[in-house]
Design goal:
- The chain has helices at 32-35, 48-54, 61-72, 77-89, 106-119, and strands spanning 3-7, 18-21, 39-40, 93-97.
- By secondary structure, the protein is α/β, with parallel strands linked by helices.
- The chain has a four-stranded parallel β-sheet, covered by helices on one side.
- Helix 4 crosses helix 5 (106-119).
- It is globular.
- It starts with a strand and ends with a helix.
């Protein structure tokens, strides 16, 4: 029962467990065979408007995090979060993302939300 995040450009590993790509866009230059994800949950990614506004600008991170958590609490993303929580209860879950800044990515926010739900 654990949740990890991993950059799409890092090699997949057995200990990753169930791998879910959580970006709305497929990572550049990666084939399906190389990425090796069990599922692509494009609809759980931040809205295009939020993603474009954020642009991985460090000073916008706190506001991005707040807004994305709001989006995750509303349909259709809420049901997808619940599905990931259920998946995490049955084994290791790795959220795969494309950006270079893992600690300030949508995957980091999503992992935080899932961990909170797992704690109850």
């Amino acid at each position: 029962m654990s949740v990890a995040i991993k950059r799409a450009y890092e090699p997949a590993a057995e200990e990753d467990g169930y791998r879910v790509l959580v970006d709305g866009l497929w990572p550049r230059g990666l084939s399906k065979q190389r990425l090796r994800v069990d599922e692509w949950m494009a609809d759980i990614a931040p809205s295009p408007e939020l993603r474009q506004w954020y642009g991985h600008q460090e000073d916008r991170w706190p506001e991005f995090r707040r807004r994305y958590r709001q989006e995750l609490g509303r349909p259709p993303r809420k049901a997808l979060v619940d599905a990931l929580v259920k998946r995490a209860l049955s084994g290791r879950l790795t959220l795969v993302f494309g950006t270079r800044q893992g600690e300030r990515s949508n995957a980091a926010v999503l992992a935080e939300v899932i961990r909170q739900k797992l704690k109850g």
